[in-house]
Amino acid sequence: MIRTMHTLLIEDDSDTATFIQKGLGESGYNVDHADNGIDGLHMATHGQYDVMIVDRMLPGMDGLTLIEELRKRNIHTPVLILSALGEVDDRVDGLRAGGDDYLVKPYAFSELLARLQALARRSQPEMQGTVLQVGDLRLDQIKRKVTRGDVEIQLQPREFMLLEYLMRHTGQVVTRTMLLENVWDYHFDPQTNVIDVHISRLRRKIDKDFDKPLLHTIRGAGYSLHEP
Fold it and tell me: Which among 8, 41, 43, 163 could bridge 49 via Cys, Cβ 3.0 to 4.6 Å?
């Protein structure tokens, strides 16, 4: 089952936090934010997260102490540590405290995203298969690349998530409720046409200029992605 990646960001610098939240949001992640170690520990122990990003220097409780406390409580969610301290001993201290990866500031957002994806794959075996294919339509989860035949198709993050979910359920009827819960993370009907709009956009991109349509509307039931 494809679902939004739930991420906890514990970062006290507001500019850095805004930058990361914006980038991850555009990449299809759902991000909760805490700006101090105490609140971060509370959120980490009371929420369900796929991965955490923890700044090393935090008010209230420093990042390494926070991670050590999580591990003592048997919370093994993968943690990426962010820090301006980049000496070998600093990185070793971070990993020994229970961190799974260590990224030194300044960094490129593309590297942060790649490291998060690697941590998620390690902790979720079902994510190991990285290429999905239906007919001549291919989706590469790691490269975030979609092609049909020899044509590369540019998708927005939500369109990518929608297609990924449909491809993982090839040949099945996917209902609106399934899409709301697994692609939009809604557990209620927002009474909008958001699904219709995104399905329409996706269909134009993956079907319009090709001979065989793959995305089908099942009247009164939902949608199905399959070869004719």
Answer: 8
The reply to whether 15 and 83 lie within a common domain is yes
Q: Are residues 84 and 189 in the same domain?
A: no
Please give the Cα distance from 22 to 42 (Å, whole number). 23
* Cα–Cα distance, 59 to 203 (Å, whole number): 48
Q: What is the pLDDT of residues 74-113, one digit of tens each?
A: 888 999 999 999 899 999 999 999 999 999 998 888 889 8
User: Tens digit of pLDDT for each residue in 202-225?
Assistant: 999 999 999 999 999 998 889 999
- Its pTM surpasses 0.70: no
Task: Tell me which residue range forms the domain holding 179.
Answer: 131-225
* Cβ–Cβ < 8 Å for 158, 194: no
Amino acid at 55: D
Q: Are 161 and 217 in contact (CB under 8 A)?
A: no
